[in-house]
Amino acid sequence: MFRRFDAGEGEALADFLAGEPWPFHTGSQVDRADVLERAAQGFYDETYWILADGERAGIVRLFDLEDATPMFDLRISESHRGKGLGQAAVRWLTDRLFGEFAHVERIEGTTRQDNAAMRQVFRRCGYVKEAHYRKAWPDAAGHRHDSVGYAIIRHDWQTGDTTVPDFHDE
User: Fold this and answer.
1) Would you say 26 and 137 are in contact if contact means Cβ atoms under 8 Å apart?
2) How far apart are CA 81 and CA 74, in angstroms?
3) For 105-140, what is each residue's pLDDT tens digit?
4) Could you tell me the domains of the chain?
């Protein structure tokens, strides 16, 4: 279901990312030439194809892997949304990061407040809302949306617990 992106697949990745809009990403339209340039520079070295029925259905890009709190970018093509691939991808990347990187203590992800599907994925995968950033996420038209941050800590992943932050500490 997940296969590491190979540097020789730059054209395929550029076609995939530039081939449709990504409404809940800061740049909803991806420039094909940008993807090709970034691929040549190694930007997608920790990127994985999400495969569904042998077809490229999405990507997961992991970054900040040297940090104790890595992050990720997840994109599922429109024709494959709503089929559980986002949840499978977040579970996979969570298991991989905690299982293979001993220094990782927590994993973060951020999405727009109005991205209900991704927020549900976070919750179903044991991630907890930790932050709410007012008017922090600009869209392509220049409108600003609230963004929300979710994370999972190693302890919760190991035990299945959900540790909720104390937001009433003032």
Assistant:
1) yes
2) 12
3) 999 999 999 999 999 999 999 999 999 999 999 887
4) 2-159 (3.40.630.30)
